[in-house]
UniProtKB/TrEMBL annotation:
<dbReference type="Pfam" id="PF13649">
    <property type="entry name" value="Methyltransf_25"/>
</dbReference>
<feature type="domain" description="Methyltransferase">
    <location>
        <begin position="40"/>
        <end position="134"/>
    </location>
</feature>
<keyword id="KW-0489">Methyltransferase</keyword>
<dbReference type="InterPro" id="IPR041698">
    <property type="entry name" value="Methyltransf_25"/>
</dbReference>
<protein>
    <submittedName>
        <fullName>Class I SAM-dependent methyltransferase</fullName>
    </submittedName>
</protein>
<dbReference type="InterPro" id="IPR029063">
    <property type="entry name" value="SAM-dependent_MTases_sf"/>
</dbReference>
<keyword id="KW-0808">Transferase</keyword>
<dbReference type="GO" id="GO:0032259">
    <property type="term" value="P:methylation"/>
</dbReference>
<dbReference type="GO" id="GO:0008168">
    <property type="term" value="F:methyltransferase activity"/>
</dbReference>
């Protein structure tokens, strides 16, 4: 996953308001009484969120399992004139030289952890990566969104430089959505190169997530709706969680 996709990810996310998203996440973390000086962005992708944190004078480490994504992140930091701290690691096995104030994981990273074992491993790794009193903040697409809105849907878009066909298949019993995405990327000679990736996400619920956070050692836990500070509504598309290390 996220190999060839890294070449077109930013083009397809060009309408995403990363500065607003970063401000929201810093506000989330402040709910745990943390104003981070050090932060790890797990599953950082092409580094857009990590870069926004760095622009706010936070010492950020950007972690991702995809070398292609990290290459794009490094270039982004270089152009911004900011130091890049990039590590190629599975977020379920984070290993840092010293603990940090906060760990974030945004844009569905937790949905890719499709088994309790993987969820448990990430929460435990995040707990170990944090200073005492530090905070983990993450989001996940809700069960309503993945199962009722996009579970068996088909999407497509054509742009000047890239086009894609996106087909989802829902396994409602296992709460899994398999996403088959075919991209057509325009080359310099005008021809299009075709490549395909498969992604699988699980539709978690807060009721499944919270016991695993508590098991990992987190104390106070807050759950909010999409970019709000209110409890999630039944048809919420995205859910945000903040958990404080005791």
């Amino acid at each position: 996953m996220y190999t060839a996709f890294a070449q077109v990810y930013d083009q397809l996310m060009d309408d995403f308001d990363y500065p607003k998203w970063a401000e929201y996440y810093l506000e989330l973390i402040s709910r745990a009484g943390i104003y981070p000086e050090t932060l790890v962005d797990a599953g950082c992708g092409t580094g857009s969120m990590a870069l926004e944190f760095a622009r706010r004078s936070i010492a950020v480490t950007a972690a991702d399992l995809s070398e292609e994504m990290l290459e794009a992140a490094a270039e982004k930091f270089r152009k911004a004139g900011l130091p890049a701290r990039l590590i190629c690691q599975d977020m379920c096995a984070l290993l840092l030289p010293k603990p940090v104030d906060a760990v974030t994981c945004v844009c569905d990273g937790v949905n890719y952890l499709i088994t309790p074992r993987r969820l448990r491993a990430f929460f435990q790794a995040a707990w170990r990566a944090l200073k005492p009193g530090g905070a983990l903040a993450f989001d996940f697409s809700s069960r309503h969104k993945l199962e009722e809105e996009i579970g068996d849907a088909f999407f497509g878009e054509e742009r000047e430089e890239v086009a894609y066909l996106w087909e989802n298949r829902l396994d409602r019993d296992k709460h899994l959505v398999a996403m088959d995405i075919t991209f057509f990327l325009r080359e310099g000679d005008g021809r299009y190169r075709r490549f395909r990736e498969r992604h699988v996400q699980r539709a978690h619920t807060p009721q499944e997530i919270l016991p695993l956070l508590e098991e990992a050692g987190f104390g106070e836990i807050w759950v909010f709706g999409d970019q709000t500070f209110e409890s999630p509504k039944p048809e919420e598309k995205r859910i945000h969680v903040v958990a404080k290390k005791g």
